[in-house]
Amino acid sequence: MQESKEQRYKAFAEQLRHPNGMLGKDVAGKMNKGNRLMNLEAIKELRLSENDQVLEIGMGNGFFVNDILLSDKSIKYFGCDTSLEMVDESILLNAKWVQSGRALFLRADAHHVPFQDGLFDKIFTVNTIYFWQDATKVLSGIKRTLKDNGLLIVSMRPKQVMEQMPVTKYGFNLFTHEDVAQLLADNGFEVIQTVEKDDEDVKMDDIVIKNAYVVITAIKSK
Ligand SMILES: C[S@@+](CC[C@H](N)C(=O)[O-])C[C@H]1O[C@@H](n2cnc3c(N)ncnc32)[C@H](O)[C@@H]1O
After folding, report:
1. How far is Cα 177 from Cα 8, in angstroms, rounded to an integer?
2. In ligand 1, which atom is closest to the CA atom of 32?
3. What is the rounded distance in angstroms from the CA atom of residue 108 to the CA atom of residue 185?
4. Where are the domains of the chain?
5. How far is CA 132 from CA 3, 70, 171, 206, in A?
6. Could you tell me the distance, in angstroms and rounded to a whole number, from the CA of residue 46 to the centre of ligand 1?
7. Which ligand 1 atom is the nearest neighbour of the CA of 19?
8. Are residues 40 and 67 in contact, defined by beta-carbon separation less than 8 angstroms?
9. Does the CB atom of residue 157 touch ligand 1 within 6 A?
10. Cα(34) to centroid of ligand 1, in Å?
11. 148 Cβ contact partners less than 8 Å away, ≥ 6 residues apart
12. Is residue 125 classed as helix, strand or coil in its secondary structure?
């Protein structure tokens, strides 16, 4: 029997939240293309410098790790993701960085980041906030593992874009950049910059969606 449109959207939503199996690898490739600009903008906003220790939460298949590690040879990257397939794919794709000790990938949940206090200069996450069940818990782990003068970058597609995408009614939490600023303020962060840019239109079946992304930079509140 042919899958209905809604069944397809639901299955795709589940893959975006937790890419798995053969389809998960395919979806990860699509995300690399579709989310390229926002990932590169988030990496730019990390303002990478010598000896930075960087954590990415929900790196998918780790496609953009090169863009971080090529910027300076003293930088170290840590990536965590709940999907075992994405961790395995990241290790394969970044084998040379893993072997040289500059990249480490772990299966771990944003709600329980398994790192020591104050380890990171920069923490970033792109397109994962929609799936946080408990933002306070996620942000408390980020705050604990971030150095006092560290940066947090949260990148996402804003609510007004996401609510036009038929997949997002299946388990996505949607935010405006003002919602995220409030969430960060309520959890011990101060937003220092918000960048909102247009992205290429998204086509889903017969729908064309005007696309955009937001990159929010925050520091720990004093
Ligand atoms: C929509 S994909 C985005 C991937 C990539 N960051 C991008 O922008 O293309 C979401 C990723 O976050 C991961 N993820 C979802 N919930 C997570 C959580 N609670 N902790 C860590 N990773 C999570 C998923 O497994 C998936 O790889």
Report:
1. 29
2. 9
3. 25
4. 5-220
5. 28, 30, 10, 30
6. 18
7. 25
8. yes
9. no
10. 14
11. 118, 220
12. strand
CB distance 156 to ligand 1 below 6 Å: no
CATH class as words, domain 5-220: alpha beta
How confident is the prediction along the chain (222 residues), in pLDDT tens digits per residue? 568 999 999 999 999 999 999 899 999 999 999 999 999 999 999 999 999 999 999 999 999 999 999 999 999 999 999 999 999 999 999 999 999 999 999 999 999 999 999 999 999 999 999 999 999 999 999 999 999 999 999 999 999 999 999 999 999 999 999 999 999 999 999 999 999 999 999 998 888 999 999 999 999 997
Atom of ligand 1 nearest to the CA of 131: 16
- The two three-digit tokens of residue 20, written as one number: 């798995």
Backbone angles phi and psi of 39, in degrees to 5: -65, -45
Q: Could you write out the DSSP letters of every residue in 126-148? A: ES-GGG-S-HHHHHHHHHHHEEE
Extract long-range pairs of 97-100: CB within 8 Å, 24+ residues apart: 97/65, 97/66, 97/69
